[in-house]
Amino acid sequence: MTDKYRYWHFLAPKFWLTWLGIAGLHLLAWLPWRAKVATGKGLAHIIKRVAKSRYQTLQTNIRLCFPDLNPDEQNQLIEDALFSNVFGFIETAHAWCRGLSGVRIEVQGQEHLDAAEQDGRGILYMTAHWSFLDLGAAIIGTHLSAGTIYRKHDNPLFNYFMTRSREKHLAYTVARKDVKGMIRRLRQGEGLAYMPDQDFGPKRSIFVPFFGVPTATITMTSKLAEAGNAIVLPISGYRKGLSSTYVFRIDPPLAIPSGDEEQDTILWTQWLEGVVAQHPDQYLWLHKRFKTRPPGEPSVYAKNARESL
Question: Beta strand 147-150 with 191-194: parallel, antiparallel or unpaired?
Fold first, then answer.
């Protein structure tokens, strides 16, 4: 992906602001961990005030998914999730600029990974958009051999920096639309980390319950597993409190494909819901996960919908 470029290709003045941003990421990455946490808390207060639509999206998502919490508990979870989602930016800086230096990792479920690797088939590592997404990718790349899917950034320098940073830890990257490339890798016995937990619109999705909310979810998992003759192995993780210790968890394989794409999608979503419920603040709630609604159902993100929550 990055073979045809070098950093000296991006020395023109139009890239100077991007270089400044990259320097800022390096600065964040080399802060002591306590200073990182303090910076994250400060940024969360700023984001709450200047990125109001994102904050309202987070509020809506939490209140939809955790209706059994009382208002005080919901508000506390909203604040915790805001911090974790903002802190994810600092965790990304750390992963891209320092790798896993200074990070402690605890592994759970190693036996499931060992058994899957001994099978000899390709492995579709099912995971999700955790708040510490890129640090999680670095953790994945340290403990198993897998590639990941990427979406090209519009800024060529930032895209080069981002992709090169990810490729330090992962076996390869494949373009989001290169489905044939994904299948080829799986058929060759390679691993692929895959995250189907965002809203891609109604055309490629079916509605399945996620925390009791009908949620548009793509069915590509079944297609990739079947076409790639792959084992579907769910992986997740979480940060222990405010520390620099992360738990990397491998669960038993999911029975996908079953021949029923809807049941496969429900199974995957049930696994995801169970994992998110254990550490709900560390999921990417800033994303409009429920943007696509069933026919005739109003948007949950409309102003009047927010006020009714």
Answer: parallel
List, for residues 220-237, the tens digit of each pLDDT value.
Answer: 999 999 999 999 999 999
What is the spatial distance between Cα 9 and Cα 297, in angstroms, rounded to a whole number?
50
- Model confidence pTM above 0.85: yes
Question: β-pairing, 147-150 with 213-218?
Answer: unpaired
How far is it, in rounded angstroms, from Cα 205 to Cα 272?
17
Cβ proximity of 281 and 77 under 8 Å? yes
pLDDT digit string (tens) for 78-118? 999 999 999 999 999 999 999 999 999 999 999 999 999 99
Alpha helix segments (H runs only) across the chain: 16-29, 33-50, 52-65, 71-98, 110-119, 133-143, 156-167, 179-187, 220-227, 261-278, 303-308
CA distance 294 to 206: 9
Q: d(Cα 231, Cα 229) in Å, to the nearest integer?
A: 7
